[in-house]
Amino acid sequence: MPYGTMPEPSHVTILYVVSSPHSGSTMLSTILGSHPEVFFAGELYEIPEPAWTPGVVCSCGQPASSCPFWGPVRETFERSANVEDLHRDEGTYRNWKSLPRALLRGSGSEGDFRRYAGRLETLVRSIAAQSGKRIVVDTSKGATRGIAYSELQSSGVDVKFLHVVRDGRGVVVSRKNREARVATPGGYAAHAALRYSLLWVGANLSYVLLFGLRTERYLRLRLEDFSRDPERAFQRLGRFLGIDLSELGSRVRAEEAFPVGHVIAGNRMRLRGEVRMRPEASDWANQLPARDRRAFFWVAGLTARLFGYS
What we know:
Helix content is 47%, strand content 10%. By secondary structure, it is α/β, with parallel strands linked by helices.
């Protein structure tokens, strides 16, 4: 059934995915978006800028402005909210520096932060209405945005948090490889492993503290759980969301390819057309120098053990 012809869900669930960068959240969410009740929306913090600017292409291959999905979403959003207001909000609340302000003001029923949360609700409801799916997945990762979503729990929107953790050594390797590709000559940081280890610890522990206290709304799974035992991992995620995800686990086990739907913001993986999860090799074992392993051990060893990594 084409988008836009489906009935609008009477109840919407936001699945907010949080993780350290390079932890597989885009791949996992793309797979999850293959379920008939789930729509993967990408990193929504990039709406409206840059996702709704000229020249941006949706994963379907169409410009965002003429995409058969996102065009109507914007029209629906603008009936109830102002794009410039959302743009200003994202500039205010996008980074970690806005977290103290959100924590101090997030419990109030009025004010700028509450209005920001209301505009996020309008965006998510517009996406749900166009897709006809009751679960919308946002992989923006920002902690402040997660707190804003928490404000919506009393407004008829269910909010759940999926915390995806990847072995920090694999994250360090992935982020160092990317830095080596994009760095200017002489700009590669010699202490990148130390910095990325610190960021891995800070991000993951922050998500536990901010969202993990209410266990009925928080689920933490390791990326390695999905690659090594996909049936069990998707079973746990399905129970958390109240849907049957057993077929996705079987398809991952068979190394099937999953198509990318309509995603205009986030990891460039969205432009590949499809994703495939294969049993993950411990890439850090062969690529992480001994010096970087020692740096990770001293900075992140205890945290890694807390998350079940030896």
